[in-house]
Fold this sequence. Notes:
- This protein is of the alpha/beta class.
- The chain has a single domain, classed as Rossmann fold (3-Layer(aba) Sandwich), CATH 3.40.50.1360.
- 33% of the residues lie in helices and 16% in strands.
- The chain has 8 helices and 10 strands.
- The strands form 2 sheets. It has a 7-stranded parallel sheet with strand order 1-10-9-6-2-3-5, with helices on both faces. A 3-stranded antiparallel sheet has the order 4-8-7.
Amino acid sequence: xxxxxxxxxxxxxxxxxxxxxxxxxxxxxxxxxxxxxxxxxxxxxxxxxxxxxxxxxxxxxxxxxxxxxxxxxxxxxxxxxxxxxxxxxxxxxxxxxxxxxxxxxxxxxxxxxxxxxxxxxxxxxxxxxxxxxxxxxxxxxxxxxxxxxxxxxxxxxxxxxxxxxxxxxxxxxxxxxxxxxxxxxxxxxxxxxxxxxxxxxxxxxxxxxxxxxxxxxxxxxxxxxxxxxxxxxxxxxxxxxxxxxxxxxxxxxxxxxxxxxxxxxxxxx
Length: 269
């Protein structure tokens, strides 16, 4: 697991965008796994800027989002499809038919997971998966005690997740308690994983994810099992890491090496 500590959120967004830009520039038909929430917003803004100002081309890219709420339609203001359209897809030259979000309104929700898994496989698998981490260690909507080999399925959200996400819903608005999410096993099948975390509220989660024991009780710890994970955090999110100084030392050495190698050395497929 590679840990990069950025000085601030803007630097973090640029470092993450560098990796994604290198991925899709070298492999224009890359398959990206994407996340919602407040953490990746800076990344999406930076990708939009690079598309508008530097012609970053998304025309051949396919995307698969991690999750969606059960019980709200795709055009609902709080759906993750709406989130992605408003914060990324509507502002870049991506083919909307190549963007995928789990179906939260399927006639039989239990069928939606296997259907989504099939689509990912038909696309050739995910080359680069973007993740955030919840304060309780969830990735996607894989809540604590989720199977480390799980595939896309329906999950009941914990009180902690409902509380964390309640800020996105008004007091009189329906807040779903169920979601469909890529499984931990699905995430681990990605060729490369890019984990983002910002803010002091994520510091404990980052420490447990990077330095803690692998446990279903803390789903993000399963990322330690993947051979190619890059964790990029800001100073606040890194504040509880015991080996923070070591990660900074390694990061400096890697920065020097990157200057001597092509960006394509980062590419997954």
